[in-house]
Write a structure and sequence with these properties.
It contains 13 helices and two strands, in the order αααααββαααααααα. By secondary structure, the protein is an all-alpha fold. It has one domain. The chain has a two-stranded antiparallel ribbon with strand order 1-2. The chain is elongated and about 80 Å long. The N and C termini lie far apart (about 60 Å). InterPro entries: ABC-2_transport_permease, ABC2_TM, ABC2_TM_bact-type, ABC_2_transport.
């Protein structure tokens, strides 16, 4: 034993000896750099989704209830200013006409606000590594953030709908449930994807605010939320029909009233439903490709 202890050759152990020992002990380690999570990382995706949900629910007064109150103020102001003396639009009182548009507008704006904050906050605070390092694919990262933004949009829409249901003079009747669900989700998805793309591009919060103030807000307000586009001149009607927000809001309104600027039949609205679905597919593909490239994130 003493001779073996003093013999350098006997005491030296190479990498092969460790491998053999680990193998005999039942410990087999994969080669370095080989991914251990293959396929769809459901646990990681769910963790990211819950993390994003908890982030905005922690300040729900600001993220859920404040937008509901702000949107309700739009209803109060416009019904007082324009809804007097029994004014009707599309055969219903003005308050009933404008309520679905305000619900949809609140959902889209908050979907954008939520998804546009996630990556941008990480870039500004230096914590974006917490999103990039976990074993999540680009598609899973995008899906988790976008799904959380859509969840916030649905919660805001529910809060706004509750407030308007309690408001005197407003009636929310569900005529076509499919249109409410489809256009509500498609509108939230479109703005969530757009917000995610904006957060990749933006380098500071001023950039994000500029997109909100100069693109999202004008397109929301000038999309038939408070009026029917048939009252506009032909040139401005054409501009309104080129605005994707118009189809989201009018389709959503069709679900409550059974009438809209798009048309008063399922066949007329179905064309718009297919169109907004195709638009979201294209937007999702573009967003995924930009995220995968690492532009302004990894470079």
């Amino acid at each position: 034993m003493a001779e073996q202890a003093n013999d350098p050759a006997a005491g030296a152990r190479g990498p092969a000896d460790f491998v053999d020992t680990d193998a005999k002990a039942g410990r087999i380690f994969p080669p370095k750099g080989e991914p251990q999570i293959t396929g769809f990382n459901r646990i990681g995706l769910w963790s990211l989704y819950i993390k994003e949900i908890r982030r905005f629910l922690k300040v729900q007064t600001q993220t859920i209830w404040a937008p509901a109150v702000t949107t309700l103020l739009f209803l109060v102001i416009f019904t007082v200013a324009l809804g007097r003396e029994g004014r009707e639009v599309l055969g219903v009182p003005f308050g009933t006409f404008v309520a679905p548009g305000l619900i949809m507008m609140g959902m889209m704006q908050n979907a954008f606000a939520n998804s546009s904050f996630s990556l941008l906050a990480g870039k500004m605070q230096g914590t974006i590594i917490d999103l990039l390092m976990p074993p999540l694919s680009n598609a899973e990262l995008m899906l988790g953030i976008v799904a959380a933004a859509m969840t916030r949009a649905v919660l805001v829409g529910g809060a706004v709908a509750l407030a308007m249901w309690l408001y005197p003079g407003v009636t929310l009747n569900i005529v076509h449930p499919w249109a409410i669900v489809w256009f509500g989700l498609m509108g939230a998805l479109m703005l969530a994807l757009f917000g995610f793309l904006a957060s990749i591009w933006a380098e500071k919060f001023d950039h994000n605010a500029a997109i909100t103030n100069f693109i999202v807000a004008p397109l929301s307000l000038l999309s038939g939320t408070f009026y029917v586009i048939s009252n506009l001149a032909p040139f401005f009607q054409a501009i309104s029909r080129a605005n994707p927000f118009f189809y989201m809001i009018s389709g959503f309104r069709y679900g409550f009233l059974g009438e809209s600027d798009i048309g008063n039949t399922n066949e007329a609205v179905l064309g718009a439903a297919v169109g907004v679905g195709a638009l979201n597919i294209v937007l999702a593909f573009v967003t995924y490709r930009v995220l995968r490239s690492g532009w302004k994130i990894k470079s």
